[in-house]
Amino acid sequence: MTNSFVHTDMATEHTGVLRVERAAEHLKSTFGTKGVGASLMLAALVAAVLVVATRLVDSVAGGSHWIAGWALLWAVAFVAIALLAAPARNLSSSLRAARRSWDEGHRRAMEDDKTWQVALQDSRVMADLNRSMSDAAVSFYHKNY
Asked: Which of 50, 61, 84, 117 is most solvent-facing, going by the fewest CB within 10 Å?
């Protein structure tokens, strides 16, 4: 008789995936998520300024005086970082607030749609909705007129 053995002690999770997840958690706990948007926005704006500055330095220098061009490019980079940090932070926070507002409006619209679908099937819910809408209209009228 032949004996066969089944080994079930194989790993159920990939070790590489676990390392990446741990690294992501470490980065998130180290840097947080609040300033990431502003940092990315600042990096994008500075990169755009540097592309324009590189084009200008290449056209003006024409291959000569590359050290002066390099120094000018770094000066432009540091000035751009200094000048664009606050606007990038403000833009990032306003975009975050707009996204939160949109998410809240979308969530409320979905809840209203679910309630309306239930009200179409149940006359008691429809009566409750009608009553609350008429009460709201009356209180609005008394408050404003």
From this structure: 117
